[in-house]
Hints:
Blueprint: H1 2-11, H2 20-42, H3 54-83, H4 90-105, H5 113-137, H6 144-166, H7 169-202, H8 213-232, H9 243-260, H10 269-292, H11 300-326, H12 336-353, H13 359-382
Helix pairs in contact: 2-3, 2-11, 2-13, 3-5, 3-7, 3-11, 4-5, 5-6, 6-7, 7-8, 7-10, 7-11, 8-9, 9-10, 10-11, 10-12, 11-12, 11-13, 12-13
InterPro entries: NnrS
Keywords: Membrane, Transmembrane, Transmembrane helix
Pfam family, one: NnrS
Amino acid sequence: MQLLDRKRALAIAPFWRLGFRPFFVAGALFGLLAVALWAAALHGLINPAVPGGMLAWHRHEMPFGFGLAIIAGFLLTAVQTWTGSPGLSGRPLIALFGLWLAARLAWFFPVPLAMLIALQLVFIGLFIAQMARQLIAARQRNNYPILLVLSLLALCQSLTLAGLVQGDDGLQRRGVLAALWLIGVMLSLIGGRVIPFFTQRGLGRVEAFAAHPWLDRLLLACGLLVAALFASGHNLLASPWLAAPFIVLSALHGLRLWRWHLRGIWRVPLLWSLHLAYAWLLLATLGMAAWHLGWLTQPSLANHALAVGAMGGLILAMMARVSLGHTGRALQPPKAMAWAFGLLNLGALIRVTCGGGWLWLAALCWGVAFALFAWYYAPMLFRARVDGHPG
């Protein structure tokens, strides 16, 4: 039976054998293109006719187009390891990826708005169904919080799209910002597992980092509370009492970073990139606390610290590491990836600290970072594993 399964897996073209391959390549290219289009629109160079305008498109596509693609690629691959059952591959993977791609293209074609919305929701619905099928069948209760966060993301996308249909800017903002902070919860969930593990392995450390389940649960609870406050509209107006959950999140993220820090990480690009990305998550929560306390003039700075620094940074670092491991290669990225990690963090810094006149430079840093990933990693992801494994 195992021999038969292996032959079936090897009969599938390498690019379609696991979810990380198509979603990492396409997600990176889409992230590059989407930010370039948004920067061009902001500078008046283009003005495509998209439903709700380019701001509505940008708001929706960064979390639900770019972010969700990489989340899907990672989770559809990781669930195979977690459950011991084969991950999505072959024609079912092609179909799911095709839905994601059609949902991205539909914004720029004269399709009915109902079809645009259906494509968005069908993709996330099928993705969640696939994850639920494998996790529930394997009784992976420790991974049920991931299903919860994904389901809440689907609700936030529905809220955002309802705002698009109704022309309600406030509803769109509530849905998108709640989704962004839910992605922050996902970064915390996944980062809390992989960053200490990768750090231990990357530095040859024998002793594992101590587990603190209470810290993980508190981070999850506070993160969900923050997302709920955004969805309800409460976090859209500054209020000193709303600084409390962000202060708690800041303390917990800071504690994690302190526990994970070892001097040797700064010699290893695959490690310092992960730690810096997680540090942006800490900065985002500190920024929101400062805004609610009246110490920061606009929450957009904190939200972009999360979107560009934390989400973009952790996505790039995770793709660079996961792609090597799952293609059977040594954990030594191309040397240019250190520049990619540095450029992405520089772009995040520019976006958060500089005025609107510098947005083009932040977009350029982001674009070059993901272009470097695509240039060096796409050939790996189109080829079979170097160790002969069918994955």
